[in-house]
Amino acid sequence: MRAASAKLIQLLDANQFVMADLYTLTTILGKVYRFTNYDLDLTVAGQLYRADGPIISRDGIKQTTGIEVSSLNIEIKVNDTVLLDGVPFIQLLHNGGLDGARFKLERIFMDWQTPTDTSAGTIKLFEGRLVEPEFHRTGASFEVASDTEVLNVQMPRNLYQPGCLNTLFDSGCGLVRAAYAELATVEINTVANRIQCSLNHAQGYFTQGVVEFLSGINTGVKRTIRLHESGALHLTLPLHQLPAVGDQIRVYPGCDKRMDTCTNRFNNLSNFRGFPFVPVPETAV
C-alpha cells in the first residue's frame, strides 16, 4: 500500500488533476540528478526537477511476489545540448558515470487550475539500481532492479582459500574508502594508458587500485591501475579521450588480498578473511 497526503487523496477523488513523472538518479559517488517529463521545471519538497534534461521513457513495472527481483526497463535519450557537470550526458554514460547508480521513479499530481502546485506530494512507484546497460547512438537502455537483487549471493558465504574473501573497502573489510583517497592532477606527457601525476606514496601502493576522473572530458571515468610506478599510473584499459593537463583525479590504493598487505599497508589484520596456511591440494593428506 502506498501512502498519500490528504490533499492528494482529495485531488484523486475530484478526478481533476494533471500528473507528471519524476526521476531521481543518484550515482555511487553521491551526485544527484533530478528530471521530470513535465513541460515545465517542478520544485518538489525544495528540490528542482528539470524539464530540459534527457528524455526518459519506461515500460510497465514488473512486480512479483516472493524473493524474485522486481524490475523496470527504462530508456534514456539525449542530444549534445544536455550537459551534466559540464560534460555531454551521452559522454557521461559512456564514461560510466551512471554505472551502479540508483534510480527512483515518483509520480506527482497537481490541480489542473494550478498545474505547478506540487504541495500534494508524490507517490513513489519504483526504486532500484541500474543494471545491464545497452548503449546506442542517442542514449542507453537500462534495467532497474529492485533491492531484492542483493539476495542473489553465492553460497556458502565462506570459502577456505589463501586470499582474503573481503573486497577492499566493503563492509567485511571495514576500511573507509574516503580515508585512503588521494587527489592529484594530470601532468604533461600523459597518454591514453599512462597518467603522469605526483602522488605521496611509494611505488606500488596504488597497483590494482582505481583512478577516477573528477573534471574534464573524462569526468566519471574510472580505470583499474595495472601498475603504479614513481610519477605515473599505468592503466589496465586505455582511455577513450585523452585528458588535459590539470584535470583532477582521485586515486585509491589496491589490495592483492595477501595477509602481509593487509597488515603492513592497511593495519587491518583483524578483518583479514583469508586462510594462507591451508595446505595446497598436492600436499594435503
Give structural notes:
- With 285 residues, the protein is mainly beta.
- The protein has two domains: 6-151, no CATH class; 177-269, Elongation Factor Tu (Ef-tu), domain 3 (Beta Barrel).
- The protein has three helices and 17 strands.
- The protein has helices spanning 6-14, 89-95, 259-264, and strands at residues 17-26, 32-36, 42-44, 47-49, 55-58, 71-77, 83-84, 87-88, 102-111, 122-136, 139-145, 182-185, 194-196, 210-213, 222-229, 232-235, 248-252.
- The strands form four sheets. A seven-stranded antiparallel beta sheet has the order 2-1-9-10-11-6-5. A six-stranded antiparallel beta sheet has the order 12-17-14-15-16-13, with no helix packed on it.
- A hairpin with an 8-residue loop joins strand 14 and strand 15.
- It is globular.
- The chain starts with 5 loop residues before the first helix and ends in a 21-residue tail after the last helix.
- The model has no long low-confidence stretch (mean pLDDT 86).
Task: Write down the overall mean pLDDT.
Answer: 86
Gross morphology: globular
Number of individual domains? 2
State Rg: 23 Å
List the total number of helices: 3
The low-pLDDT segments are none
Main beta-sheet strand count, sense and barrel state: 7 strands, antiparallel
Order of helices and strands: HEEEEEEEEHEEEEEEEEEH
What percent of residues adopt helix (DSSP H or I)? Answer: under 10%
Widest sheet: strand order?
2-1-9-10-11-6-5
Tell me the number of strands. 17
Q: Give the end-to-end Cα distance, rounded to a whole number of Å.
A: 59 Å
Residue fraction in strands: 25-35%
Find the structural class using helix and strand composition. mainly beta
